[in-house]
Design goal:
This protein is 31% helix and 22% strand. The chain is of the alpha/beta class and 251 residues long. It has a single domain, classed as NAD(P)-binding Rossmann-like Domain (Rossmann fold, 3-Layer(aba) Sandwich). Helix 1 links the parallel strand 3 and strand 4. It binds NADP nicotinamide-adenine-dinucleotide phosphate.
């Protein structure tokens, strides 16, 4: 059940954290959102706040992000390429949701460095911080080596799979969400579908970023989502009401 579906007003009431990890007290239901400044990450932050979670947003440029999140969201400066920045960001948190993704196929922020090494850095820091669940937004088709996206965008799918593998091997309870094409559209307008096996090769499947954010939040609320990897898209139909059943049906 929603605690508060209406979002708090956007505000600049943010705390920029830094410094010593050990001085940060535990935060009940605290969620670190990596990729919080991204299109999906922002929706994850908003939905978590609406559900009553305490949210810390990992951003590369706090100055730019300040004022763009709901009131009460903490901002923490960090770069997933820099492990030293991640330990203080995780300190005291209970959960991690990552919606990071490379924005370029080449250069220092290529998929290898973000979707693999960056995710691995997050996972390593999460293990040290004893994070109780890590939700990773990955992608459909990560197991399809000959998918054209790999050629077009720095082997992005191959690196995403390696990032997923690092999480699955970590021992941290995980949920790996593999969406199809992402749309900027309202959530809960269609039926969310989960599949497994990564067999769909067409790029025809789509899902609203808001629905992906919803899945990430629901994954934290339902123990049935732990240690699950699945693809997802939406089809015409009513919004999901029984998330527990949807997660429980997964292998
Ligand atoms: N686009 C699609 O159709 C599609 C389909 C399937 C899966 N996906 C995946 O879904 C996820 C969300 O996609 P999106 O389009 O909503 O994301 P997006 O808007 O491109 O946002 C990516 C986020 O990653 C952050 N990031 C990149 N490099 C970073 C670094 N070194 N340290 C910290 N943060 C870093 C960005 O931060 P800055 O704001 O600082 O750059 C941004 O917040 C991504 O993993 C994407 O690959 C996308």
């Amino acid at each position: 059940m929603l605690l508060n579906r209406r979002l708090l007003p956007l505000a600049a009431a943010v705390l920029v954290l830094g410094g010593c990890a050990t001085s940060t007290p535990p935060v009940e239901n605290g969620v670190l959102v990596a990729g919080a400044s991204g299109q999906t990450g922002k929706l994850v932050v908003e939905q978590l706040v609406a559900e009553g979670y305490t949210v810390r947003a990992l951003v590369r440029e706090p100055g730019k992000a300040n004022g763009t999140f709901p009131a009460g969201v903490q901002l923490v400066a960090g770069d997933v390429k820099d492990p030293a920045s991640l330990a203080p960001a995780m300190a005291g948190m209970t959960y991690v949701v990552s919606a990071v993704g490379a924005k370029s196929g080449k250069g220092p922020d290529r998929p290898e460095m973000i979707d693999y090494q960056g995710v691995k850095n997050l996972v390593d820091a999460a293990r040290v911080a004893k994070i109780r669940q890590f939700v990773l937004v990955s992608s459909r088709a990560v197991t399809q080596d000959d998918n054209p996206l790999n050629k077009m965008f720095g082997d992005v799918l191959k690196w995403k799979l390696k990032g997923e593998d690092a999480l699955r091997a970590s021992g941290i309870p995980y949920t790996v969400v593999r969406p199809g094409g992402l749309l900027n559209a309202p959530g809960r307008q269609k039926t969310v579908v989960f599949e497994q096996g990564d067999t769909v090769t067409s790029a025809q499947t789509t899902i609203a970023r808001a629905d992906v954010a919803d899945i990430c939040v629901q994954a934290l609320k339902h123990p049935e989502a732990r240690n699950r990897t699945f693809e997802t898209h939406t089809v015409e139909g009513p919004p999901v009401t029984d998330w527990r059943a949807l997660f429980a049906a997964l292998d």
